[in-house]
Amino acid sequence: MTRRDTPTLTLADIAERLGARLVGDADRRVSGLATLREAGPDQVAFLANRAYLKDLPDTRAAAVLLHPQHGETCPTARLELDNPYLGYAALSRLFDPLAGRPPAGVHPSASVDPAARLGERVEIGPNAVIEAGVTLGDDVIVGPGAVVGADSVIGAGSRLHANATVCHGVVVGQRAILHSGCVIGGDGFGFAHDGARWHKIAQLGGVVLGDDVEVGSCSSIDRGALGDTVIGHDVKIDSQVQIAHNVQIGDHSALAGCVGIAGSTRVGKHCMLGGGVGLSGHLTICDGVQVTGMSLVTNSITEPGVYSSGTGAMKNAQWRKNAVRFKQLDDIAKRLSRLEKGRDG
C-alpha cells in the first residue's frame, strides 16, 4: 500500500475505534495525522503535552484528539480521551501505509532452504536468506536482505525489516518487529586470556525474544555463552542498544538509545532505562526501576524507584572547579568527622 492508498475515515469511525467522545461533524472525512501546527483540514491532530497548548487556538486540523479538560478551548471538532497519547498511538496505526498491505509472497531472488517451514501468508523480500530448519509463522514478513539463521523460529505476525539478522538457534515470539541492521544472536564478548593472548570462548546458548518485542535499528542482542539471553514480552528496545550474553530483561521494560548492558545482568519487569545508561555485569535490577539518561549502574538495585548518577552539563569553568572539589570530598569528610568527635568529647 502506498501513501496514495492511505484510507480515509470519518470522525465517527475514529471515535468508535478509539472509544472517544466526539464533539463535531461525525461525517467529516480525514485521511491523515499531523501535529497541531502542521495539520491541514483533512487531518487529525493531537494534544498530549501541555507544552503544545499554545498551538491549539491556531490549528487548521479537521479535529483534535485531546483530554476533556482542554475541550472548551479547541477551535475545531474534537475527540476527547482521558489518555490522548494512547489514543494517538492507536490512531497512528489506522493511517499506517503499510498496514493491511497484501503479502507479496516469496521474491524470486530470495534464498529459501527446502528444509525451512513457512506458514500462511508469509512474505520474503529480495535477496533475503532463510536457512535450513527455520520456521516462519503465519503472516511473517522478512524484508529485503534480511537473514534468518538455521533452526531459528519466527513467531506469527512478526516483521524483519531490510537487512535485519537473526542468527542460528534464535526464537522470536509473535508480533515482534526487528528493524534494519539489528543483529539477534551474534556471539557474546567471551574470551579467556593466558597472559599473552586472547582465546575465544564458543557461545553455545541462544536468544529468546518474547511476544510483542521491538528492537531498533543497529541494536545487538548477543547469544548466551551457556543458556540463553532472554528478552521478555512487550519489551521495547531503541536503536544502537547493546545487550550482552545471558542478560535477562523482564516483561514490559523499555530501553532508550545507546543503552549498554553487560553480561549476565538481570533487569526486572516494568523497568525503564534512559538513553546512554550503562549497567555493569552480573547485577540484578528489581521490578519497577527507572534509571535516568547517561547513568552508570555498578551495584544491584533492590528497591523500585528512580535512580540517577553523573552531573548535568554546565559551563566548563564551573565544572573544573567542581571537579577539584570532588577530589577534596574525602578529606573534607574526615575533617568534619574529627570536628564532630571533638565537639562530642
> What's the arrangement of strands in the largest beta sheet?
8-11-14-17-20-25-28-31-34-37
The residue ranges in which pLDDT falls below 50 over 5 or more consecutive positions are none
Radius of gyration: 26 Å
**Dominant shape:** flat
What is the strand tally? Answer: 38
Binned strand content: 25-35%
The biggest sheet, with number of strands, parallel, antiparallel or mixed sense and barrel status, is: 10 strands, parallel
Helix content: 10-25%
What is the typical, i.e. mean, pLDDT? 94
Structural class: alpha/beta
Helix count equals 3
Termini separation = 83 Å
Walk me through what this model shows:
This protein is of the alpha/beta class and 345 residues long. It has three helices and 38 strands. A hairpin with a 4-residue loop joins strand 21 and strand 22 (198-200). It is flat and about 85 Å long.
TL;DR?
With 345 residues, the protein is of the alpha/beta class. Helices cover 14% and strands 27% of the residues.
